[in-house]
Amino acid sequence: MNCLLCHNNSKETLSITAILLLSPNKALMCDACQRHFCRIIQPDCPSCYQYRHEGACQDCIAWKRQGYQVDHRSLYQYNTAMKDYFSRYKFQGDYALRSLFAQELAKHIKKYYKGYTLVPVPVSKQRYDERGFNQVTAILEYANLAYLDLFERIDDTRQSSKTKKERLQLNNRYQLKKGAALPQKILLIDDIYTTGSTIMSLRQELIRHGCQDIKSLSIAR
């Protein structure tokens, strides 16, 4: 196989049984690249899976002070390897990389979120036109995971252009599409959870329209 990240050809030969027992990522990247990604096993912040915090992190404390509930989980730490991955996937448009964590995400959802309707975080029309795809829905589609496209983005300001203080202040960046029917249990799906402002914005819009059972999941934190 050729690793999707370094493109080196792995000389490792695996039986069908061995492949089935290994991580879903095993057949898509080599061992050397796999070792650079850090799976979150025992998160320090129980509310958002932030790493290296004793108890609730400062972001979650700030949200709770404003009266918001945080119920988020992530698969991986947002380290240098993950940053490089998303740079290639999102900003350089390497569409093949949508497959890298898709099956692992699907496995986690099927195990822990039975009965929840998946709702991806939307991208603006401008970002979609630039990139050619929504990085979240592309992963879900590769994994054959059904989802409901409930939201549209109405503010195109990049989160990366804002200060942390600005990110922790909610604004009306998203709105439900007209005529959207809300399911009872919703799992919001994002690629990266930073301060939580994106998830909080979507969550509050759902609550405003009567939805109460809302959880969120991202590939990285």
Going by CATH, the architecture of the largest domain would be 3-Layer(aba) Sandwich
What spatial order of strands do you see in the largest sheet?
1-6-5-2
How can the largest sheet be summarized? 4 strands, parallel
What is the number of E strands? 6
The portion of residues forming beta strands comes to 5-15%
Specify the overall morphology: globular
Distance between the termini: 29 Å
Any low-confidence stretches, pLDDT <50, length ≥5? 17-22
CATH topology name of the largest domain, in short, is: Rossmann fold
What's the gyration radius in Å? 18 Å
* Count of distinct structural domains: 2
Rounded mean pLDDT is 88
Give the proportion of residues in helices: 25-40%
Class by SSE composition? alpha/beta
Write the element-wise H/E pattern from the N-terminal end onward: HHHEHHEHHEHEEHE
CATH class of the largest domain: Alpha Beta
Enumerate how many helices there are, as a single number.
9
Family: Belongs to the ComF/GntX family.
InterPro entries: ComF/GntX_DNA_util-trans, PRTase-like, PRTase_dom
Organism: Streptococcus equi subsp. ruminatorum
Protein name: ComF family protein
Would you spell out the secondary-structure blueprint of this structure?
Elements: H1 16-21, H2 31-34, H3 58-65, E1 72-76, H4 80-91, H5 102-112, E2 117-120, H6 125-131, H7 135-142, E3 151-153, H8 164-167, E4 174-176, E5 185-192, H9 197-208, E6 213-220
Parallel strand pairs: 1-6, 2-5, 5-6
Antiparallel strand pairs: 3-4
Summed up:
This protein is of the alpha/beta class and 221 residues long. 33% of the residues lie in helices and 14% in strands. The chain contains nine helices and six strands.
